[in-house]
Design a protein that fits this description.
Elongation Factor Tu (Ef-tu), domain 3, two-stranded antiparallel sheet, 170 residues, six-stranded antiparallel beta barrel, single chain, 8 strands
């Protein structure tokens, strides 16, 4: 085990959503079930989609390719107090890895049509896994700082707190 080892991933596809910048994008897809997108899988990985239509929900792992570097202390949405990045879902992470759960509406060729999307257009997809409640669902005993800050109703959209002036897509 080597500290700080570099790990490389190959993009499996790309997200095609209406969101071009973080501001105005839902904080979590579950808060915006009507938001649609296509997860377009590259031809070389298309065989990996076999039988995926049998699942109603998928985990999508993607990169925060427009995030401006990692930070260890973050002021997350709903709070103005800094927390460790690993106690948040901030895109400003040491490794810009994003994860979301989407509803699979249909499959057409290499395109997974999904809803409940909170991913920027053009984001590289690095993995897809089926959501299986028997494996994935846990009733939490505690939810940290978020418990006092949570909003039960209403759509929450991203603001500019993770933006960097002049940042452009690599």
């Amino acid at each position: 085990m080597t500290k700080g080892r570099i790990i490389e991933f190959k993009a499996l596809g790309v997200v095609e959503s209406r969101f071009e910048k973080q501001e105005g994008t839902p904080i979590q897809g579950r808060m915006a079930p009507e938001e649609k997108a296509c997860i377009r899988i590259y031809d070389e990985f298309a065989d990996g989609l076999k039988d995926i239509e049998g699942f109603s929900h998928l985990y999508i792992f993607f990169t925060f390719d427009r995030a401006a570097g990692g930070k260890l202390l973050i002021k997350p949405y709903l709070d103005n107090i800094e927390h460790g990045v690993f106690a948040t879902r901030s895109p400003l992470r040491p490794n810009p890895l994003g994860m979301t759960i989407v509803k699979l509406d249909r499959v057409e060729g290499n395109c997974l049509y999904v809803s409940g999307v909170d991913i920027l257009n053009g984001s590289p997809v690095i993995d897809i896994k089926p959501y299986v409640p028997d494996f994935d669902y846990h009733q939490p005993d505690k939810i940290g700082w978020y418990n006092e800050k949570r909003q039960k109703d209403g759509l929450v959209l991203a603001d500019d707190r993770f933006s960097v002036p002049g940042a452009v897509k690599p």
